[in-house]
Design brief:
alpha+beta, six-stranded antiparallel beta sheet, single chain, Arc Repressor Mutant, subunit A, disordered C terminus, 9 strands, 9 helices, 2 domains, three-stranded antiparallel beta sheet, Beta-Lactamase
């Protein structure tokens, strides 16, 4: 892969770093150093330096001897979400949900022990939390994070929680591990999660999973309210049913999008023939 540049300003080191990023795909979500070196066509020492650099920058994480991308690749032009087709599908549904509830709604994915926001439709509120695309919060303090953590296997959950948070918030004095396990078991069973003033005073949210065509939980979406304006009962009894329907519609449309046939039609030459 690397070594193909011809221009005088070609930066080989940058090209190699991009080679490392692009060697990960749906069939290779996590790879060892040897696998990355082979896939990127690099020597192991070079691949190792690049992986460690990308890890320090936050684009790659390492767990148990393997490397994987993080949602921070969203910073490179939203390619991470755009390639899935999820935002194009989710946007009109999120807008309809927000119009119906009068509350903000967001979508997030898991990155280690944090969630990272990948989509959002908001309304002006008194909630004292600045949230935008790329914002991260500790997963255990959020309804979306609980949904995403509940979808993990025991080994995956332990690995995720072992990753230090990069949300930049004060250390969280949370619930004991056994209490968290019980809560996640309940979330898994009922299909939704609640967070009551765990992230900030007055902030309540409820979240549900968004699934891909194979039924795997790939994201979570929520409705967030302020306790001074909206009660817990209203959030659960009125907003949650709307949220569940919306997530179901998004998941169904995403499954159809993922299963679509794709044919690339060659560009015509202008004389009725086609070129390859």
């Amino acid at each position: 892969m690397a070594g193909r540049g011809t221009g005088p300003d070609f930066v080989e080191a940058l090209a190699r770093g991009l080679d490392v990023l692009t060697c990960f795909d749906a069939g290779h979500r996590a790879m060892s150093l040897t696998e990355v070196a082979a896939a990127a066509g690099l020597a192991r020492p070079t691949a190792r330096r690049l992986l460690l650099t990308l890890e320090e920058l936050g684009y790659v994480r390492s767990t148990g001897g393997t490397f994987a991308l993080t949602p921070k690749v969203l910073d490179l032009g939203m390619a991470y979400v755009g390639s899935l087709g999820l935002w194009d599908i989710a946007r009109p549904h999120l807008e309809e949900l927000v119009a119906g509830t009068g509350e903000s709604s967001s979508m997030a994915q898991l990155d280690g022990s944090d969630i990272v926001y990948v989509a959002r439709v908001s309304v002006p509120k008194i909630i004292a939390l600045r949230v935008e695309i790329g914002t991260r919060f500790p997963a255990v303090q959020t309804s979306q994070g609980k949904v995403l953590l509940a979808a993990l296997s025991p080994d995956e959950l332990a690995a995720a929680l072992a990753v230090p948070s990069r949300a930049g918030l004060p250390p969280y004095i949370g619930r004991p591990a056994d209490q968290l396990q019980r809560e996640l078991t309940e979330v898994r069973a009922r299909g939704w999660a609640l967070a009551e003033e765990e992230l900030a005073p007055g902030v309540l949210s409820v979240a549900v999973p968004v699934r891909d065509g194979g039924g795997a939980v790939r994201a979570a979406m929520n409705v967030t309210v302020h306790a001074a304006e909206t009660s817990r009962e209203t959030l659960v009894q009125e907003h949650l049913p709307r949220l569940l329907r919306t997530a179901g519609d998004i998941s169904a449309e995403w499954a159809l999008w993922q299963s679509r046939p794709h044919v690339e039609v060659p560009r015509g030459t202008g004389d009725g023939s086609a070129t390859a």
